Amino acid sequence: MTAYAALTGHFSRIAAMSNAIGILQWDSDTMMPRGAAGSRADSLALLRVLAHDMAVDPRVGDWLGAAEQEDGLGDWERANLREIRRVWTVETALPADLVEASSKAISASEMAWRQARADADFPALLPYLAEVLKLQREAGAAKGATLGLSVYDALLNDYEPGGSAARIDALFDDLAAFLPGFAEEAIAAQQRRPAPVPMEGPFPVEAQRRLGMRVMAALGYDFERGRLDISTHPFCGGADNDVRITTRYDEADFGKALMGVIHETGHALYEQGRPAAYMGQPVGQARGMSLHESQSLIMEMQACRSPEFLAFAAPLMRETFGGSGPGWEAEALWRRYTRVERGFIRVDADEVTYPAHVILRYRLEKALIADEMPLAELPAAWNAGMQELLGITPPNDRLGCLQDIHWPSGGWGYFPTYTLGAMTAAQLFDAACRAEPDVLPGIARGDFAPLVGWLRTHVHAQGSRYATDELLTRATGRPLDAGVFKAHLARRYLGAA
């Protein structure tokens, strides 16, 4: 057996372990009875330590050194070696006891968050979140020492390989200067148009579920390799070839769940479209979270808030809920789904105000990781930031700093990828429409094959073969350019050419 073959066999076993962890985690977030939380936390911690032990097996370093000298390896194999070395370098920086402690702290914090969010009670979450934050700092310091990165950049690297706070600061400072004035212009422009006609509920959950599944099918989701469920916070998870998504329902407004389903389906299409030949290898994984978020936002924001999609969806909505009247026409739905409005909840935000939610979280998590702000001050700092960036103050912590699961679940360094993803989505969608003239006409027919086919070729099937900037340049002809995102907003919300 060659060293390369030994490596791929070993990492296939690690992937199998990760798949088991993914399904147990999905169950924890959807169906697990609360009384099982303790034993589930122990099981997940053990599996994560075992996966970590496999990744840092001393043989991996030896195999890597030998495999990198082998002749006859192709581009994919060389890229796989690069990704294996990246994973191995990060994993060897972490001691097993830190992996175990972090896993248990996250499990406890997630359970505490669900109750604290329901009760709008940040103090109830505080001790659990403080433990997660402490361990995240330790992990970031350990990784940073090995990689030569700051603590924050080392955490960011888990979600955005090669990313840096310095680059994000420049992009986000530019957006923070641009968006408040643009939002004012967009709100003024929409006030000159007729307001959306109210749609009378209730909208039963089962009917919402049927509509969501019809739209998922139209987008190209493979129900033979996944399922739709309910969770406190929508997500996409599961395992290789078992890509599960969740949403949450509001019987007064079916649009929230529908757009949540569309968003998570975008993630799922990426997972279901990864290269089958390398599914269990690091090179076969999704490249990073800015690309992952671009795939969800291409569907939710670029495609499914377009006039073309709403022309297709309006009859489905009327049929599902028995709706009639002007509020159910495609034009009225377009005004509803492109309405700019300052709100408290990130996942319900329009695409003009959404980046402000992300910039706030990014600035706060950087300060918390750097220990520049006590965690107990998070609610006050959050409210002040919302007032500064959006001109509104949450009335309670459920609508403020308790709304997202990311920090309780250990996702420190994740948030900036949402807005990086929005910019990437605009650039990829623009390129797809230029390359495939049938993208928008297809969406109007409920045929997403032209769009998904282009994404399969240029993003999904590439796995982690290329670095993010290289993949984006290959697909669109240039690295990330915020100007494309701004131009998209101007066209949609101001009618600019």
From TrEMBL:
| Cofactor(s), by name | Zn(2+)
Keyword annotations for this protein, in alphabetical order, are:
Carboxypeptidase, Hydrolase, Metal-binding, Metalloprotease, Protease, Zinc
The note on cofactor binding and number reads: Binds 1 zinc ion per subunit.
Catalytic activity annotation: Release of a C-terminal amino acid with broad specificity, except for -Pro
| Xref: InterPro entries | Peptidase_M32_Taq
A Gene Ontology molecular-function term?
metallocarboxypeptidase activity
Biological process according to GO: proteolysis
> Which CDD domains does the entry link to?
M32_Taq
Hydrolase keyword on record: yes
Q: What is its EC number?
A: 3.4.17.19
Q: Name one Pfam family in it.
A: Peptidase_M32
Active-site annotation:
264
Primary enzyme class: hydrolase
Q: What does this protein do?
A: Broad specificity carboxypetidase that releases amino acids sequentially from the C-terminus, including neutral, aromatic, polar and basic residues.
| UniProt similarity note | Belongs to the peptidase M32 family.
Q: What is this protein called?
A: Metal-dependent carboxypeptidase
This protein's species is Ancylobacter tetraedralis
